[in-house]
Amino acid sequence: MTKENMNNENxxxxxxNHNSVQTSQAETPxxxxxxxxxxxxxxxxxxxxxxxxxxxxxLSFKEHDVVVPMTVLEELDSIxxxxxxxxxxxxxxxxxxxxxxxxxxxxxxxxxxxxxQNDEQHPSGCLAIxxxxxxxxxxxxxxFNENDNRIINAALHIQKKTxxxxxxxxxxxxxxxxxxxxxxxxxxxxxxxxxxxxxxxFLTKGYHKFSGDFWDKIKAVDTELEGRNTTHYxxxxxxxxxxxxxxxxxESESFAGKVTGWDDExxxxxxxxxxxxxxxxxWGITPKNIYQGMAMDALLDPNIDLVILTGPAGCGxxxxxxxxxxxxxxxxxxxxxxIVTRSTPEIAESIGFLPGTEEEKMAxxxxxxTDSLEVLHQQxxxxxxxxxxxxxxxxxxxxxVNFMRxxxxxxxxxxxxxxxxxxxxxxxxxxxxxxxxxxxxxxxxLAQIDSNYLTAVTxxxxxxxxxxxxxxxxxxxxxxxxxxxxxASFAEENL
Length: 495
Prior knowledge:
This protein is an alpha/beta fold. The chain is built from 16 helices and 18 strands. Helix 10 packs across helix 12 and helix 14 crosses helix 15.
């Protein structure tokens, strides 16, 4: 610790001791707030859900300083031993904090320990622990009966003691943000480090639509024929922001293509043809619109390892994914099995204690899959046997997301439904389970998020759409349009 920091610490301790209460040993508690550098840009106070969302979040604030209230540590401790998927994140966060503070003395932990430098251009900030319980009599703006209130009180206390600094409470709990504002905290924010877009309307759709006729915009083109494939090479500025495997359409419905590569001057576009897209077939299912045609093209492409399907309820995400999976496993023999899973927050704690097999426990949450299987069976009943025969033939396995950690999935087609309720870290955990020869289909509706701490722009589904758009082995399709029924279509547009 520098001489300047030691002087600041002594001055701050004197100020705090003057206002603090007696402990049970009749001693004055010391260092109730942090002795951070004189003029940091910001001091961030982290809520528990931030460390559960991203266990290493405290390392993401660069030159700014981070404070973790004691209540947060207690909540992490109570969560780490539960039978929940989030318990692992709690344990990771605790270990990460311990690794950072391992060699620090108690006084240094309270006054602030320098964080590892992760940016050569910016010095790192400090990490400190504040004993918010000792503030009960000196800063009880809100009742201390609730953990959220103790964290808010700690932030208010630091704001009062360090008026020359910007104090920000970071939490994913919307109600807590409202309470903190109402209690007088000037700055309250969501955790936005893993938020790649500010508005869901800017989310990549997976295709680019031209007004008018595509060829009217092309001044020069080179065409190359290779077998049944036709590739056009056009000027790079035709679609300046194009990314790999992005589909191209025009309003005149005369052209449909896919970006397969580019350099500084040219853009390579594979000519798919609208009619060919609309006549694709998988397990007796054909596309009902051009968006489904693009989705089926990506789903059936063996060179694409990750397909992301977004769109409203009733647009055909699950049905197309399952039909393509059956086609590739049973008819084409490209994969050995189909693994079906989805986010199951309601049973994360109790699934291990419910009676029956894992498939039986998952049945209520995978009804959408079994409903689609029944539809596909009716479509192709004359060619194949009973529904149970098809499930056995395709080796369909129902798995819980909570038990996917640690696995290495080889030569399988994984269908991950309801991705909008997963965080970026959870999706990363699942996607990294996929080994050689495995394809994963992630689908979800960003308008139907059930998680208390996620929004459309912070959902893991949104995160992977943006992160993987430049990856040659992935494709994203926004299925625009409800095809389930005219009733579902009307409800989606008018309710």
